[in-house]
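Teaching note: in complex prediction, the entire set of molecules is handled at once rather than each chain in isolation. The prompt given to students was simply: 'Predict the structure of this complex.' The entities are:
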Amino acid sequence: MPEIEGSPGSSMHGVTGREPVLAFSVASPMVPTDNTAKFKLPVDSEHKAKVFKLFSLANPHMRTFHLSWLSFFTTFVSTFAAAPLVPIIRDNLNLTKSDIGNAGVASVSGSIFSRLVMGAVCDLLGPRYGCAFLIMLSAPTVFCMSFVENASGYIAVRFMIGFSLATFVSCQYWMSTMFNGKIIGLVNGTAAGWGNMGGGATQLLMPVLFEIIKKAGATPFTAWRIAFFVPGWLNLIMGILVLTLGQDLPDGNLGALQKKGDVAKDKFGKVLWYAVTNYRTWIFVLLYGYSMGVELTIDNVIAEYFYDRFDLKLHLAGIIAATFGMANIVARPFGGFTSDFMAKRFGMRGRLWNLWLLQTAGGIFCLCLGLVNSLPLAITFMILFSIGAQAACGATFGIIPFISRRSLGIISGMTGAGGNFGSGLTQLVFFANASFSTAKGLSYMGIMIICCTLPVSLVHFPQWGSMFLPPSNDGVKGSEEHYYVSEWTEEEKLKGMHQGSLKFAENSRSERGGKVASVPTPPNVTPNHV
Amino acid sequence: MKSFVLKISLILFFLSKTTKGDVLFSSLPRSLFVVASAMEGQVLKAGEDDITVTFGLNQTLTNQTDGSYKKAKVKLCYAPVSQVDRKWRKTNDNLKKDKTCQFTIYNKPYERNVKGFKWNIEKDLPTATYFVRSYVYNDADEEIAYGQTTNGKKSDNLFKIQGISGRHVSIDIASVCFSVFALLSLFGFFFIEKRQSKVKS
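The expected output is the structure of the full assembly:
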C-alpha cells in the first residue's frame, strides 16, 4: 500500500528535499492544478495551495497560515512576557539571581516535553484542536501570574506558561496540510520566523503596558501584574479565532474526513528507531541548542542586561532587547536563502559550510557582546549576533529534510526539543548562579556556541560528502536511493512502502551541486527496483 | 564608508573609557551623624509606616569645616544581607557605579542640623533590610562627606521594610473569571462539535 501523501498521520510531511526555501509558487507543469476544486488559490490534487499569497486571507489556506503563525507568535509573547519586567518583579518578589535564572530555565524546559508530544496530539485531534487546546489551556497559567508572591510561585508559573511553545509543532504541521510540498519550505520558514518574533515583540509591549498602567495610577508592584492580563487575553482571542475560523484540512475537519478514507500510517516504533539511530539527528539536536537555544536564552536575559549594565530606563532596555527578537522577520528566512544559494553551486557541502559559518559568526559576536562596555557597540554586536543565530536556525531547517525521509517528523520534533534543552542548559550554567556576571555569561556562551558548532563537520552523507570529505566513489553506496531506501526493511520494500523515499531520493539529486542537472521523475512511472 | 564606521567605533570606544576622576567612597570622611527612628530589627510596612531622620555635621569631631557643603541627600541603602546573589544592588567603591543606595528620601540645600524630617515609606520599596546614609555634595555635585546609621561593616542597627505584595482582590477575581471563561469556551466548543458530528453521521 503506497503511503498516502499528506495524510494527517505524518507530522511535517510535505517538507520534501528539493524545493528552494524562497519558492513563492509552483508552476503548473510541475504540479498539476486541480481545476475542479473551488478555492480562491490554485490547488494541487490534494487541494493543497500551490501559491503563497502573503497578504491574502483566503479561506482555508492563507487564513490557516495567519491563524497558525499568530498563535505561535502569541505563545512566544506569553512565555517571554516576564523577561523585560524582571527589574520590577525581582524587587516585588524578593528574587535572587539564582531564582531569576532558574525561572528562565523553567520557561523553556516545559516545551521540551510538550513539543515531543504535540506531534501525536495533532495526529489524534488534528492541528486545529492541537493548537487551540494548547493556547486555551495556557491562558489560565498566564492569568496565574497575578497570584504569584514568591520565587517558587514565579518559577512554577513560568514553567507552566512555557509548555505553550509547542505550538511550533502544530504550526508547522498545519502548514504542511495546507501547502504543497514544493513551497512548504518558504511557508514553514516564514511561519516559524514570524512566530519567533513574538519573543522580540514582548520586550517592547510589556514595558510600554507597564508604563501606561503606572501612569493610570497603579503602583509598580501592581502594574506589572495587570500588564500580564494582555498576553492572557491574546491567548484567549487567538484560541477562539482558531476554533471558529480554522479547519484541519483544505476540505474540512479531521473528524469528518477520518470517517471517509483510511489513513495509512507508519509504525511509530520504526520511525523513532530510524530517527534515533541516525547519528546526524543527535548532531543537529546539539547544534539547534546553540542557535535556537541561545535565541531563547537571550530573549530571557537581554533586557535585564541592558537595564543593569548600562543603566537604561525599563522601556528603553525593552526596545533594544526587542530588536534582537524582531530581527527574525528577515534573519531566519535569510539563513534558508543562503543555504539554498550555496546548495546550487556546492550542494549539501555548501549547506553545511553555510550553517557552520553563520552559527560560528553568531558565536563570535556573542563573545564580543559580553566584552564591550559601550552601549552603541553592545547594540551593534547584539544585532550582528541575532542575525547569525537566527540565520543559523533557518539554515538548520534547510538541511534537516535531507537527514531522513521516513523519520522527518520525529527528527524535526527532536531538533526543536534540542533547541529548548540547549537554552535550559545554557541558562542554568551561565546565567543562574552568582559566580559570574551576565556579561561574562554572554562571553562564555559565545565560546560555547563556537565549540558546539564544530560537530557539523562530522555530518557526512555518503552521496554528497561532508565539510571536509568528498562523496563516496562507490556506485551503489554513493547513491541517494541507497541512503534513503536503507531505512526500510525487505518486507516493507516488498509492500512498496518505500516508494515515497525513492521519489524523494530522485528529487534530492540537486544536493550534488555544481552543474548536475537533476533528472525529472516521469509523473506516472515509479521505479520498482529495490 | 567602512573606515568612517571604524573611526566612529574607535572614538566611541575611547570615550567610554575616559573617567572624570570619579569619587571613591573610601576617600570620603565620615563627618556627618545620622539618626533614624527605625530601631535594630524593627519591621516597617511600606505604604503605612514612616521614618524620621535627624542628621547633620558631627560636632564632636575636631577640625570640621563645612564651607564646601552645598547640598545634602539622605538615602535608604541595602544592607549586605539583601545584596547577596543580587548584583543589581552591588556595592562599588566608585560612587558612580555604586548601587547600594537606590532610594533618595531627602534632597535639599545643606543645613548644619536637620531635626526630625519625616518620610512616608513609599509603596514601591521592596522587602529588604536597610540602613540610612546621608551624603553632602559640593558645587560640582560630587560627594565630599557622608554619615550613616550603621557601622563601617554595615552589620549594626539594621532595620527591615516589608514591601507590599501588589496583589489585589479585584485582580485575583478578574484572573479567575478569565481563566474559567477560557476553559469553558474550549471544552464547550469541543463537545458541541462532537455532538454535531454525531448528529450528522
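Point out the following to students. The mean pLDDT of chain B is 87. The two ends of chain B are 71 Å apart (CA to CA).
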